Amino acid sequence: MIVEHFPVGLLGCNCVVLGDEATKSAVVIDPGDEVDRIGDVLRRHGLKVVAIVATHAHIDHVGAMARLKEVSGAPAMLHEADLEIYRILSEQARWLGVPAPSETSIDRFLEDGARVEFGAQAIDIVHTPGHSPGSVTFVAHAESPLVIAGDTLFNGSIGRTDLWGGSFDEIMKSIRTRLLTLPEDWPVICGHGPDTTIGRERDTNPFLVRAEGV
After folding, report:
1. For the chain, what are the domain ranges?
2. Distances from the Cα of 98 to the Cαs of 26, 55, 59, 200, in angstroms?
3. What is the pLDDT of residues 15-36, one digit of tens each?
4. Is pTM beyond 0.90 here?
């Protein structure tokens, strides 16, 4: 599986491109900004986008969803519980003091336990609310497993819970019951900042270590 991720936009959201080498089908995760840069990655690998998905609907993760859908023709997807947050993109933009991006219709809602397929590859959808009501984590069970955690879990931290619909109790429950149950050596691409592994966060993340009373 082709895997590329790179920070985009003012807040450095990690946009992820996953591609199936055999069919050249691709999924783009969290297109927060810089559609031209995303396009350069796709063209370099000869990939065609078949799905545009978001871990959650905060502006830095979905700001370029409409534009990427326009140029690629691929369907846009997010969890239904974040639809209202997506619909207030203009309010999110005012809060950050940036121009409001264009919006688009959501073609499919991401459901817990379902999957998004691209060629012979797929990512499983794991609902991990807390950072937002509809936050999801994507898990790729390819020859090399991969976790794309959005803003739920960071290297040495967790997502903030003081924004629209956030909940500290929910995010801690999501991490403990949905993420830390995965194999410890599985790599994690976070929504911002450097990568990590499930085991590293279980053992050293100060939020999780404190929560376990260690």
Report:
1. 2-211
2. 30, 21, 10, 35
3. 999 999 999 999 999 999 999 9
4. yes
